Amino acid sequence: MSSQQEHRHHPRRDPPRGVSLTLRRDPPAADEESLHLLCRDVSRTGLGVAFPHSITPDTDVELWITLPGDERRLHLYGTIAWCAAPLGQWRAGIALNLERSDGRFWSARFDQDHDLDEH
């Protein structure tokens, strides 16, 4: 049986200290507020986040990410790939759509010899 790691396109990394992540559904519901989430891990094509509640996989989302030491707030789009509550804490994986908005700037941060903490 193959492992989850074997299905990953890009390796995960710990997020830089001080990363700020805001998320809302795309398109947002009329009464829905944006969520400020804890980022657990990052990769070129996705994010792992702690979530305050369950969210349905295949939900399209819009995100804003600010990296420490960088004044640029990256605007990204993605889709919830999975959501589960291991150990009682909801977590979700977000597959990023790098073709939209600031996706190319996010992707460039993962080029060889480039550190996410740098800008």
From TrEMBL:
Sequence ranges assigned to domain PilZ in this UniProt record: 8-99
Residue ranges, annotated region (Disordered): 1-31
Lineage: Bacteria, Pseudomonadati, Pseudomonadota, Gammaproteobacteria, Oceanospirillales
SUPFAM superfamilies, per database record: PilZ domain-like (SSF141371)
Domain of life: Bacteria
Annotated signal peptide: none
Name of the protein this chain belongs to: PilZ domain-containing protein
InterPro entries: PilZ_domain (IPR009875)
Pfam family, one: PilZ
